[in-house]
Structures are given as C-alpha cells and as structure tokens.
Design a protein that fits this description.
Elements lengths: L1 H7 L9 H18 L2 E9 L2 H8 L1 H17 L6 E6 L2 E9 L2 H16 L2 E3 L2 E3 L3 E8 L6 H17 L4 E4 L5 H20 L2 E10 L4 E13 L3 E3 L1 H11 L2 H21 L6 E5 L2 H5 L3 H12 L6 E5 L1 H5 L3 H13 L2 E7 L6 H6 L4 E4 L1 H4 L6 H16 L3 E4 L5 H10 L3 E2 L8 E2 H10 L7
Parallel strand pairs: 6-7, 9-11, 11-12, 12-13, 13-14, 14-15, 15-16
Antiparallel strand pairs: 1-3, 1-6, 2-3, 4-5, 8-9, 8-16, 8-17, 9-10
Length: about 450
C-alpha cells in the first residue's frame, strides 16, 4: 500500500502526482463524453515562490507548498483533482463542466484564495498565483495537449501582471497581444469614465405603456471607436474585471433610476444584467446594498437579470443571498430563457419573477413554426409557474400581434427603438402617449 501511495502521490504534499492526474483526467473525459458535458485542465504556478525559498529557506518553502495544497483542495469540489506537478506548479482537473462561466468562477475563487496571506513559522507570506485554463474538448482531447495549452495560458496570465487567470485561445501571438491591450484599455476606461449605459425600453404589450428599461453597457474606444459588447464582455469575464465593471454598471443604473424616480417617472424599472462571475464573488450583496443606499432609489425600481446556467449550481449560499436581495424589493429575471438548461424547481426556489424569452426564438416566430411553438410553450409555462414572460427581439408588428395573442405581457425590441442614452430615453417616453409619468 505504501509503494502504491508513493507511485501515485507527491511525497511532500500528499497530492496526486502527474500520473494519477492523467488517470483522473481520462475518467473526467470519459464522463464528459457519456453525459455530453465538458472538463477543464487548470495549470497553476506560484508568482513569488523563489523569493520565499531564498529569503526563508527551503523548509519554509516546503511548508508553504503544503499549505497551498490544502488551500487549493478546499477550493474545489470533492470529485475534482488537485495534483502537484513539481516545484511550485500545480495541476487541477475539473470534471462535469457545463460551460466556461463555471470554470471561470472556480478559477476566480482559486486566485482569490491564493491571494490571502499565509503564515509560515509565524511570518505572514503573500503567495499569489497565475493560472492557465484549457477546456476539453474545445482546446484538445488528450491530456498532453491540454496540459500544454493550459501551460501557455498560464504564461499569458503572468505576462498580464500575475495574480490572474487566462483561458487558452487558439490564436496568434498578435491576437493575444490585442486581447491584453484591450484588457488594459478596459481598465483605463473604467478609471477614466469612458463606459456609458444605454436603456432599451420595455413595454406592456397590450397597452404599449413603457414600464422600464434594460441597462446595456456601451464603450467607445479612443482609437477603435464603438465596440460591440461581444468584443469586450467575454474578455472582462475571463479576466475577472467584470466584477468591477459590473459594480459600476449597477451603481450607475441606480443613479439613473433615482433621477427618473425624482422626476416623476416612479413606475420605471431598470433591469441590469449580472455575470455569474459577479454573483459568485464575495461582496456582491454588499455592493448592491451600498449602491441602493448611496442613490436612495427604492429597490423596487431595480431588477437583476440572471443566466440559466446559474441555477444549475444550486448553491444554498447563492439562493439565500438572492432571497435577501429579493426581500429588499429587487426583481429577479432569467435572461435568454430557452437557450440553456433549467431545472424548473430552481426557478421557483430562486424566487424568479420573470422569464425573458431569448430573441433568437422571437425573431423567427413568423418564419419558423418550431420557434413559434417554443415561444408559446415558454409563455404557457411562465403562466403556470405564476411568472411573467418577457419577449426580447420584437422587430415587427406581426410578431407583436402574435405575442399578444399568446398572452405574453411584456416585450422589447427594435420594433420601437434601440437602446437609447438616458436623456433620449426620457424624451422618447415623454413623446409616447402611453409613456407619461404615472
């Protein structure tokens, strides 16, 4: 038994070694194929381990490695594998992966835990890490390829300033440099006030009364001009910068809602999209409460739009936090409903009020009977669960008429107008006969 242990485990930390990590990966990959899910390989390297060894000695370095092993193991699920590759390098195999957002949340948790001080022989030590991620099967189907790609991504994390994580991307060095430049520009944009919010009106379909708006982030890059959110939001999520950007978005939306409320438009409600990375980050609830208190806006004037994948986590802590926020008066919606997998019992347990039907179905209602059937089913299901259905992407009168006939109560889309700056939004409401202040 002792020989078997030594053959498959690291002698210092007791963690699985590379051979056992490979075996665990093979199991995770087989399970992913069987259940049509995914897996991920995370390569982690300590940022300043050499300094610890040189200044405190190898015994202190060994003690730090053991503490790092324990901390990493506590940050992942029991069925995930943390292994030591040698030196200050660790490998983590995640199985049963649903999407990149879930992996990003785990990576963010690992980076944050590692940033907390260690205490070695009574001396506080900071040992941050750089972490690279390769996804199975998207970045490779065998262990060696994924290990190589995760290692490359880890070095990208180091080059970006360390204490960070990066996903592997099959792109040229030029593209990687462009991403790093864009990430740096986003940080500057946040500091210099370059971001702004636009607001897409939401209507009660039967009366065409404006009931609120969805806040949408916009950014005009100093050199590249206006950028689509699809160009920078995924990068912000992967880097963790979405947490700071999201905090700004919610605070700015609260400020705007408060201004509208004080101007007499008290019935308008602003909904804000929330990244899973934000919600899994400690301090989200405090940020929401702080923004509400600072602006004085009633919580009922604000809403949070969540993703379907978030419900799959079934985290008691997350559910309790959302219940507390809902208790303040905030509305909860599931965005892009129908594009992912939802456990309907979770929809009720998370106290969701609205299901937002993804625009890909709504836009094809007139030409694809299957999409019309999906929309009809979601509307009926929402009614059965005593929830409101909101149709996104309404672009013509025929679609609007069909949605009203189906019993869909709310909607938004280019049939009326695109997202507007705050002042234009209010002028639009003022010139819409059904949009007068309540």
């Amino acid at each position: 038994a002792h020989i078997e242990m030594l053959a498959h485990h690291d002698a210092l930390t007791g963690l699985p070694n590379r051979a056992l990590a490979r075996d665990r990966f093979d199991q995770a990959a087989a399970q992913a194929e069987r259940y049509r899910s995914g897996a991920a390989v995370l390569y982690l390297d300590l940022d300043n381990f050499k300094t610890v060894n040189d200044s405190l000695g190898h015994a202190a370095g060994d003690a730090l490695l053991c503490d790092v092993a324990a901390r990493l193991t506590s940050a992942v699920r029991a069925n995930d594998t943390v292994s030591r590759q040698g030196g200050d390098e660790f490998l983590i195999v995640l199985g049963d992966v649903t999407d990149e957002n879930a992996v990003a949340a785990t990576a963010l948790k690992l980076v944050e835990k590692m940033a907390l001080p260690f205490r070695i022989n009574g001396v506080p030590i900071t040992a941050t890490c750089s972490l690279g991620i390769a996804m199975y099967p998207g970045n490779g189907t065998d262990f060696e390829a994924l290990l190589k790609h995760a290692d490359q991504a880890m070095y990208q994390a180091k080059e970006s300033g360390r204490n960070a994580f990066r996903f592997y991307e099959e792109s040229s060095n030029t593209s990687v440099a462009e991403h790093l430049h864009l990430l740096s520009a986003m940080r500057s944009a946040l500091e210099n006030g370059e971001f702004r919010l636009c607001y897409q009106p939401q209507f009660e379909l039967s009366t065409l009364r404006v009931t609120g708006a969805e806040a949408l982030l916009r950014w005009t890059h100093p050199q590249l001009g206006p950028l689509s959110p699809a160009q920078f939001i995924p990068l912000a999520e992967r880097s963790g910068l979405i947490v700071d950007i999201g905090a700004w978005v919610f605070a700015e939306a609260c400020r705007q809602a408060s201004a509208w409320h004080q101007a007499g438009w008290s019935h308008l409600k602003i909904s804000v999209n929330v990244s899973p990375v934000q919600l899994r980050r400690e301090g989200f609830e405090a940020m929401v409460r702080r923004s509400l208190a600072a602006t004085g806006v009633p919580a009922r004037c604000m809403g949070l739009e969540l993703t379907e994948s978030l419900l799959l986590a079934d985290s008691p802590a997350l559910r309790e936090m959302l219940t507390r926020l809902h208790g303040l008066g905030l509305g909860l919606s599931i965005d892009d409903f129908g594009t992912g997998y939802s456990n309907l019992s979770y929809v009720k347990s998370f106290e969701v009020e609205q299901l937002k039907i993804d625009q890909s179905f709504v836009r094809r209602m007139s030409t694809h009977s299957n999409d019309a059937g999906i929309v009809q089913a979601i509307v009926q299901m929402a009614h059965s669960l005593e929830l409101e259905a909101v149709a996104e992407g309404i672009e013509d009168a025929a679609t609007l008429e069909r949605l009203v006939a189906m019993g869909c109560r709310y909607g938004q889309g280019f049939h009326w107008c695109p997202a507007l700056p705050a002042d234009e939004f209010l002028r639009y409401c003022a010139t819409t006969s059904t949009g007068q202040p309540a």
